[in-house]
Each structure stands twice: as structure tokens, then as C-alpha cells.
Design goal:
Radius of gyration: 21 Å
CATH architecture of the largest domain: 3-Layer(aba) Sandwich
Structural class: alpha/beta
Number of strands: 14
Number of domains: 2
Largest sheet: 7 strands, mixed
Oligomer: single chain
Number of helices: 14
CATH class of the largest domain: Alpha Beta
Order of helices and strands: HHEHEHEHEHEHEHEHEHEHEHHHEEEE
Distance between the termini: 36 Å
Length: 434
């Protein structure tokens, strides 16, 4: 079943509203996803150094501008510019990177404008000619930098399929959906899916993820989905979204599905419409982030029985992780109004502002850029930067419990995904016992 088509921003809005985004919207072929590595390795890069002088490194910072979306979603990620400036100042005050100070150029992305990401890319690469761009990226957005404009990127969903097209260094802590094959195996722990009738729902812009990873991974377990729904009604049209999800739910129920794999951007809307029915399949989410638009919605009283026995797959994170807390302390010192407000998201009441999101994004991407650039040495260019990242090895990403391992085969660090289970008491997902 393939119903309707839409603009890609639908899934983006669902993702950003949830807060901390750890998975993307694009996919890789099944064999590469199963192996967890990037087939073929990186393409050679030019020995060039745009934006680098004897005493400075100009970097771009891409981040979502949520101002225009306030009429559709109620979320607050904090002040991205102030947060990045605070952490960049910390690096510069300590001597910079091998004697060079970081000079940031900011690029806000209007999340409601289909052209905004492209416009920001052109500004940072062609107008500003930055050395690298760090921050927040969705779906295929990094390709404008690493492929079209041959500019380095830190962050974003780094899939093997997209990485094969990169013409500049690219490193991240996100695999962009390639890890979802592992997720199906985690969902099947203890043969939990054996004998179940499984349906799959996803936004149409994640069709490749469904066809190339989710369905083959289920089939590998001996499970053929009884229904697969791909939809993309614009979130600007609440009635259309509700109607579309209602059709999906009816079809799932009629097919006898007792388990639904909810992929990516569908995580926020599917349970919202499901609660209007008496149908209660077990929900398995490929991300903890998008479903947060449902769990953290302060504007309505929901029937959270939809979440009974629900599970999700995401990276194992810990707010008290020491490197992240160093960033928190620096941001609080620079922005006194945030003192005491940068707390564990798992303890944050639903509907509250989430300034933690900008801190998390800034800390993770800037720290990784700094570590690679420092290893590259004083002779900083794309060749030395790429070689440094591909030999970085064991690395502690801020907020991550499991260490990354950056190698030629793993420019995403190969951080393992873990199973999270829904806790009715806290109305949040918590890491399952390992």
C-alpha cells in the first residue's frame, strides 16, 4: 500500500519537535547495512583548506530555525547561536585548535521552507567558503555540502549510500537508518516476533529505508509484513494526516496485525490517531525521537494505552556523561539564565522547553570536529583532516554511553544501537537491561 506523496519537511518537523534526533531518513543497501561498514571506503579528497588561515579556521554552523513552525509545533531547543558561541569561545580561550581560533558563520534553516537547507548550504559553502560545516542536518542535506560543494561536514545521518557520493571529508555519530537492520534483531530478542503478524508504517520519504532495510531485516527473521503503509500528508493539514493514518489503521486491523513497526517520522502521528480506536497492536519504533512529539505533547490529553509494551531502538545516551557535562557547565557560565535548566531530558516534564537539544548538538559536533582537526595537525587541509578522522579510533562522543570507533570502514563511529522500552510511570522510554 503506497498512499499519497508529500514534501520531505513533514518528517523533519516531526523529528525536530521531539528533541534529540539520532536517526535520519535515508538508507543504505541491505548488505552494507548488515555489515555496519561503508563499502568501498572514502573517495580521495583534494589537499585544499578553504577558510583556513595562519591563525583561524572558519566553520559553518547549520541549525533549525523553529520560529516559523511555532504555529504547528510547540517546542524550544534553546538558542543555537548562543550555545555554539559559548562552546567555541571555550575552545578559543584554551588556545584554539593547534594555534588557530575558530570563527563561526551561522546558517539558520527555516524548517517550513523546502528551499531553506539548500540556501543555507550555498551561503556557507559558496559565499562564506568555510572549511567545514557542523550542527544539525536531516535526510540528504549533507550531500549539498560533501558532494555538490565538496565541503567537509561533521554530523547528520551518514549512511553508506550517501557516503559513497561524498567528495569531501564527512564524519558523524549517526548512521542515518543503516542501524535499523540491527533494530529488527533487537525487537526479536527472545523470539518476541515469532508468530506475530507485523505491519510497517513510514513516511514516503523513508520508503527506501523500508524497502532496503526494514522489510529485508524482518524477512531475514522469517517475517513477511502483512501490510506496508507509506504516507506523507502535510502536517499543515491536520485533517489530511488524521484521515490518512486512520486508513492505515483500518487496514492494519483488518489484516490481523498485532505488531506495528513505526518508522522514523511516523512515530509522532501514528499513535496519536491509534488512540482514537480500540485497536492496540504492539508498537515498535525505529527511533525514540519522533515518538517524543506524541509523548511530550502538552496540548491534549492522550490515551497512552497505545504505548503498552512499546519498544524503540536508539543509541544509549547518558545526560551525566562527563564530556557532555563539561559543555553544560560552559554554556551555563556563558548564559546564566540557563543555570539549573539543562537537566536530564528523561526527567523533564512533557511540554517543557528543551534547551538541552542545542547543547547536545553543539557539544557533539564541535567536540568531534575539534578532535579530528587537532589530530590533523598544523598542516590542516582536507587530506590531513580525512586521514585524521579515519584513524581517530576509539573515541568518547559526548552523551554516549558506548564509545565510537572511527576507522576507514566506520566514519560514523559504529556506535551500537540499543533497545529502549516504554515506561508508563515516567511516560518515557528507558534503556532495557543489557
Amino acid at each position: 500500500m503506497n498512499l499519497l506523496r508529500s514534501r520531505r519537511r513533514t518528517a523533519v518537523l516531526l523529528a525536530i519537535a521531539a528533541g534529540l534526533v539520532f536517526t535520519g531518513c535515508t538508507t543504505e543497501e541491505k548488505d552494507a547495512a548488515d555489515s555496519g561498514s561503508q563499502s568501498g571506503g572514502p573517495a580521495p579528497v583534494a589537499r585544499v583548506a578553504p577558510g583556513v588561515t595562519d591563525d583561524s579556521i572558519k566553520i559553518g554552523v547549520a541549525y533549525p530555525d523553529l520560529t516559523a513552525a511555532k504555529q504547528f509545533i510547540k517546542t524550544d531547543h534553546g538558542d543555537y547561536q548562543a550555545t555554539f558561541n559559548a562552546l567555541i569561545k571555550k575552545v578559543n580561550d584554551a588556545g584554539g585548535i593547534n594555534g588557530r581560533k575558530i570563527v563561526p558563520v551561522f546558517g539558520a534553516i527555516n524548517v517550513l521552507s523546502p528551499a531553506a537547507a539548500q540556501e543555507t548550504c550555498v551561503k556557507l559553502t559558496q559565499d562564506e567558503k568555510v572549511f567545514a560545516v557542523i550542527g544539525s542536518f536531516n535526510a540528504n542535506e549533507p550531500l549539498c555540502y560533501v558532494q555538490t560543494n565538496k565541503t567537509a561536514v561533521i554530523g547528520g545521518p551518514l549512511t553508506a549510500k550517501n557516503y559513497a557520493q561524498a567528495q569531501a571529508p564527512w564524519f558523524s555519530d549517526q548512521r542515518g537508518g543503516d542501524e535499523v537492520a540491527d533494530a529488527m534483531a533487537l525487537f526479536n530478542q527472545g523470539n518476541a516476533l515469532v508468530g506475530k503478524k507485523v505491519a510497517v508504517v513510514a513516511p514516503v520519504n523513508e520508503e527506501a529505508l523500508v524497502k532496503e532495510i526494514v522489510v529485508p531485516a524482518l524477512q531475514k527473521l522469517g517475517i513477511t509484513p502483512v501490510e506496508t503503509a507509506l504516507g506523507d500528508a502535510s502536517n499543515r493539514d491536520a485533517a489530511a494526516v488524521a484521515q490518512q493514518m486512520g486508513v492505515f489503521i483500518q487496514k492494519f486491523q483488518a489484516s490481523g496485525a498485532d505488531t506495528v513497526v513505526v518508522v522514523g517520522g511516523s512515530g509522532g502521528e501514528f499513535p496519536k490517531q491509534l488512540e482514537k480506536t480500540s485497536y492496540r497492536p504492539r508498537l515498535l519504533f525505529t527511533s525514540t525521537s519522533q515518538v517524543g512529539t506524541y509523548l511530550n505533547d502538552p496540548s491534549a490529553k492522550h490515551d497512552y494505552s497505545t504505548m503498552n509494551n512499546a519498544s524503540a531502538v536508539a543509541l544509549n545516551t547518558l545526560w551525566s556523561e562527563p564530556r557532555l557535562q563539561e559543555c553544560v557547565a560552559a554554556v551555563e557560565a556563558a548564559i546564566p539564565d540557563l543555570k539549573g535548566k539543562l537537566t536530564d531530558p528523561l526527567l523533564l516534564p512533557p511540554g517543557e522547553p528543551q534547551p538541552q537539544v542545542s547543547v547536545d548538538t553543539a557539544c557533539r559536533t564541535l567536540s568531534l570536529f575539534q578532535s579530528i582537526a587537532e589530530k590533523a595537525g598544523r598542516d590542516l587541509n582536507y587530506e590531513t583532516f580525512q586521514n585524521a578522522g579515519l584513524s581517530l579510533g576509539s573515541y568518547q562522543n559526548p552523551r554516549m554511553v558506548d564509545k565510537a570507533n572511527y576507522t576507514r570502514e566506520n566514519p560514523h563511529g559504529a556506535i551500537p544501537a540499543v533497545l529502549w522500552n516504554y515506561d508508563p510511570a515516567s511516560r518515557k522510554f528507558v534503556v532495557a537491561a543489557r
